Amino acid sequence: MTVRLDELAVPVIAAPMAGGPSTPELAAAVNRAGGLGFLAGALKTAQAMAEQIAAVRKSTDRPYGVNLFVPGTPGDAAAVAAYRERLRPEAEQWGVTLPEEIGPDRDDWEAKLAVLLADPVPVLSYTFGLPTAEEAAAVRAVGTTQVATVTTPEEARAAQALGMDALCVQGPEAGGHRGTHRVTDRPGELPLLELLPAVREVTALPLIAAGGLGDGAAVAAALRAGAVAVQLGTALLRSDESGASAAHRAALVELPGTAVTRAFTGRPARGLRNGFIDRHGPYAPPAYPEVHHLTAPLRAAAARRGDTDAMHLWAGTAHHLARTGPAERIVADLWQAARG
User: Fold this and answer.
1) The CATH homologous superfamily of the domain defined by 5-71+106-243+323-339
2) Is the backbone of residue 110 left (phi > 0), alpha (psi -120 to 50) or beta?
3) Type and span of the H or E element at 85
4) What is the pLDDT of residue 2?
5) What does the alpha-carbon distance between residue 102 and residue 61 come to, in Å, rounded to a whole number?
6) What is the pLDDT of residue 127?
7) Which long-range contacts (CB under 8 A, 24 or more apart) does 180-186 make?
8) Residue 53, SS3 per DSSP
9) With the CA atoms of 149, 153, 155 and 160 taken in that order, what torsion angle do they form, in degrees rounded to the nearest 10?
10) Which residues, at least 6 apart from 64, have a Cβ–Cβ distance to it below 8 Å?
11) Are 272 and 257 contacting, i.e. CB atoms less than 8 angstroms apart?
């Protein structure tokens, strides 16, 4: 079952975008283009993940991947409580109730691993950290190719020592959560085209480039910088098969810029800059998933009213280049442009 990521017909991987944008249809469409489709296993139950895997298997006979968020350590309860009080007036304004208690949440990690060991998938990637040595060995034993998301050479060394098969090197230009291995880490600012050779200095593993890749020139530059493939997320958000909301799709070309913030989830994440980020970003504690659960009612209410000033709108720095149409055509056109 081992998948060679350096032998893809088209070296394009669909970024696993949790929370709805990644769909089985999107994964299958990227596969049809010759790339590698991905499902986001995070922020859903193990059963829901299994159902999406079954849907992908029905629609493609090519390899695909699944991504999981690695659970971290609990955040500072007092800091979370203080942030709750800061958000409370806004919650009252919109008629929503913030959770007063947030219990432990490992994102169904153990159950998801059990599913993936009992019924293996071709590729499994990890974000927010690394599995234990025992977990990695178990996944390796069933023949699944394992990919670790890294943001620094130090994280790359740790992933190689654990026996990962490839690394997704995430630059600061990437939309959505930064994949730092500790929630309290300050994300690095070394641009992707400099981060790739810095990681290459410490490992010979195949590298996947992620972050701000919106056109053919950017894709070609990442491959020249040492990547065997590129990972596209924001570039596919407006595609026909994306699960992104209409408001999110429109905001990608209407809002002018992005910012990295902990305001919505407690983890650094790049999104379209809006009022919520400006109001609350400086005060959000490094606590994930506690802040994610705390702000969930506010974000849901904003989504219902299509309020892009208060929604979380994950987007990379090349968001203005995101195109509409079938994902298969978007990938094919980008690859053709990259080849010159």
Assistant:
1) Aldolase class I (3.20.20.70)
2) alpha
3) helix 77-93
4) 77
5) 41
6) 98
7) 180/128, 180/151, 180/155, 180/267, 180/268, 181/128, 181/129, 181/130, 181/150, 181/151, 181/155, 182/72, 182/129, 183/72, 183/73, 183/75, 183/128, 183/266, 183/267, 183/286, 183/287, 183/288, 184/286, 186/268
8) helix
9) 80
10) 27, 31, 36, 37, 38, 39, 56, 121, 122, 123
11) yes
| Residues 271 and 264 sit within 8 Å (Cβ to Cβ) | yes
Mention every residue, 6+ apart, whose C-beta is less than 8 A from residue 97.
Answer: 91, 297
43 C-beta neighbours (distance < 10 Å), count: 15
3-state secondary structure (DSSP) of residue 4 = coil
Q: Is the pTM of this model over 0.85?
A: yes
Q: What is the mean pLDDT of residues 148-154?
A: 98
Task: Label residue 210 by pLDDT band (50, 70, 90).
Answer: very high
Q: How far is Cα 224 from Cα 218, in angstroms, rounded to an integer?
A: 10
Every domain range in the chain assigned CATH 3.20.20.70: 5-71+106-243+323-339
Residue-wise pLDDT tens digits, 170-194 = 999 999 999 999 999 999 999 999 9
Cα 99 from Cα 319, distance rounded (Å): 33
Q: Fill in the amino acid letter for 218.
A: A
pLDDT at 1: 56
Q: What is the CA radius of gyration of the chain?
A: 19
The DSSP line for 261-292 is: ESTTTSS-EEEE--HHHHHHGGG--S-TTHHH
Band of residue 158 on the pLDDT scale cut at 50, 70, 90: very high
Neighbours of 109 (CB within 10 A): 18
> Where do we find the tokens 């994102």?
107
Q: β-strand 12-14 against 229-232: which pairing, if any?
A: parallel
pLDDT category, 340, cuts 50, 70, 90? confident
